[in-house]
Amino acid sequence: MDSSALDEYLGTVPGSVSDLELLLWVLVCWALVLDIVLTAYGLSIGLVERNPLMRQALETFGLAALGFAKAGAVAVALVFRFLWPEYAIVAPLGLAVPWVLAVLANAALLASL
């Protein structure tokens, strides 16, 4: 496969987004929302955030801290994506994988209660 075909498949042609990249960005959005919702629910029933930095931020600023942290991560990923379009798939993948795992861990924890 030549590099132009690979670029086109991965959505790295300037101004384009591959179907796979779009799917990953949608997954990022769903995981972001679900993580905030599940975290909010867990905190409301007495569970405690295990990340000490986020725990302090939540105690100080409430759930807005989680929203700002997620928005900051998305902003960094978008900057990465536009600065290095040849690695376009890396940006949403780098958010989707850990956030989906976090959602699954949170859901499993809540289901076990």
From TrEMBL:
Superkingdom classification of source: Archaea
Transmembrane annotation, as ranges: 22-48, 60-83, 89-111
Keyword Flavoprotein: no
Ranges of residues in domain DUF5658: 28-108
Keyword Iron: no
Keyword tags: Membrane, Transmembrane, Transmembrane helix
Designated name of the protein: DUF5658 domain-containing protein
Source species: Halosimplex rubrum
